[in-house]
């Protein structure tokens, strides 16, 4: 800009600075007319908007009177304090950035019109100088808009981290029983995006870092089955909160069986978000009933005996020791045959005939194997009183025996 242009710009800006409060009034009215987002009841408070318009108009006009910011001679940060403050506040108010920047463009036009009005009043007719002033105004608006966007994005990232921390804290509260407090339950439901009341189940799924993208697939498939869900990663476990609505638990299990390729546990049904902690404990317990090396969804209602065993591993180990320990000392080939026969015999309620049918062998073969088991373990298998103990011991063996004993 020439010396003449600079002198004219400074003179016009000095006069316009005296009119800033009136210009702020005009800008506020124009924003309400041309930027509908600001008319929403939850939008920027009127006093905040007016003060922001006042402060930013002041800075723009001051920059017109001074040297415009640029790569060779950037203006001091003091020139951008209003822009930074506006960007930060609008991010916190969840005002879309496009609406914020549109208001700055409106403000730039109003400042330019005010400078032109002042030029007419002062009789300035140097068109080259006025074009230089116009160019300077829009360079300033572009620079300030960039500063607003930078401040907005910084604040948005901070707010996102705070939102994530708050959401994680609410999840922890739900899973730890804090949702028994109605006020907490309502806030958690609002933030997590689930109903306070209704039928719930919880699923826990083992995940690796690369598996986190599977959440979207799970949500889509459950939604297709009319089941809403929300998900949270805790360490290496993906926790799903399933709002069943009128859907059956078996429907959720069928979806999970098809979509999950990892060890997982599904709780029973509880009523209300207040009992989600109970469902979470059940799902965790059900997950523990999945044998090592197996990828399957264990439903608690189908694994109640196993759940009892994993709840008391010492007693489970004692059952195995009392009933089955000697069998693990025989060669693997014979051991597998004897254990399979024993499991079939228990499933057949001690019927030799039914065991033979299920095992596809002669009843005498079954009797010989049962006699061999009696020889090895010392237990007489002809009575019925021990069936519960033996059945639990066999389940415990499947749960707790290392792979080499399978």
Description:
It is a single chain. By secondary structure, this protein is α+β, with helices and mostly antiparallel strands. The protein folds into 3 domains: 159 residues, Globins (Globin-like); 110 residues, 2-Layer Sandwich (Alpha-Beta Plaits), CATH 3.30.70; 94 residues, Arc Repressor Mutant, subunit A, CATH 1.10.10.2840. Helix content is 63%, strand content 7%. Strand 2 and strand 3 form a beta hairpin. The protein is rod-shaped.
- Class by helix and strand content? alpha+beta
> What Rg, in angstroms, do the CA atoms define?
37 Å
Strand content: 5-15%
Helical segment count: 16
Q: Name the CATH architecture of the largest domain.
A: Orthogonal Bundle
Average pLDDT confidence is: 87
CATH topology of the largest domain: Globin-like
Tell me the span between the first and last alpha carbons.
87 Å
Q: How many DSSP E strands?
A: 6
Characterize the biggest β-sheet: 6 strands, mixed
Helix-strand sequence: HHHHHHHEHEEHEEHEHHHHHH
For this structure, what is the CATH class of the largest domain? Answer: Mainly Alpha
CATH superfamily of the largest domain: Globins
Helix percentage: 55-70%
The parts where pLDDT drops under 50 for at least 5 residues are: 68-75
């Amino acid at each position: 800009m020439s010396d003449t242009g600079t002198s004219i710009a400074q003179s016009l800006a000095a006069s316009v600075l005296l009119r800033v409060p009136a210009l702020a009034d005009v800008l506020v009215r124009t924003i309400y007319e041309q930027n509908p987002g600001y008319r929403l009841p939850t939008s920027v408070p009127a006093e905040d908007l007016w003060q922001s318009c006042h402060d930013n108009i002041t800075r723009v006009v001051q920059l017109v009177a001074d040297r415009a910011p640029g790569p060779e001679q950037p203006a001091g940060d003091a020139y951008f304090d209003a822009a930074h403050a506006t960007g930060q506040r609008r991010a916190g108010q969840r005002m879309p950035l496009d609406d914020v920047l549109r208001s700055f463009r409106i403000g730039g036009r109003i400042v330019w019109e005010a400078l032109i009005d002042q030029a007419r009043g002062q009789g300035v007719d140097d068109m080259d100088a006025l074009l230089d002033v116009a160019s300077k105004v829009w360079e300033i608006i572009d620079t300030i808009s960039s500063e607003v966007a930078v401040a907005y994005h910084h604040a948005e990232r901070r707010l996102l981290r705070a939102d994530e921390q708050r959401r994680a804290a609410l999840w922890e509260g739900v899973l730890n029983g804090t949702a028994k407090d109605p006020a907490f339950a309502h806030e958690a439901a609002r933030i997590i995006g689930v109903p306070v009341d209704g039928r719930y189940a919880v699923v826990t799924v083992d995940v690796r870092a690369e598996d986190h993208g599977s959440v979207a697939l799970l949500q889509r498939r459950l939604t297709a089955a009319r089941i809403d869900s929300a998900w949270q990663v805790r360490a290496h476990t993906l926790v799903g909160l399933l709002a069943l609505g009128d859907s059956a638990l078996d429907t959720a299990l069928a979806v999970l069986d098809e979509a999950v390729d990892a060890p997982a546990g599904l709780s029973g049904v509880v009523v209300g978000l207040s009992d989600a902690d109970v469902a979470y404990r059940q799902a965790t317990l059900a997950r523990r009933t999945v044998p090592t090396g197996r990828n399957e969804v264990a439903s608690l209602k189908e694994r109640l005996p196993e759940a009892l065993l994993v709840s008391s591993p010492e007693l489970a180990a004692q059952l195995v020791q009392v009933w089955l320990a000697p069998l693990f000392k025989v060669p693997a080939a014979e051991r597998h045959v004897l254990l399979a026969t024993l499991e079939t015999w228990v499933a057949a309620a001690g019927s030799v005939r039914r065991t033979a049918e299920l095992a596809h062998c002669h009843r005498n073969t079954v009797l010989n194997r049962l006699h061999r088991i009696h020889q090895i373990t010392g237990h007489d298998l002809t009575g019925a009183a021990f069936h519960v103990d033996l059945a639990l011991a066999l389940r415990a063996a499947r749960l707790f025996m290392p792979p080499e004993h399978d």
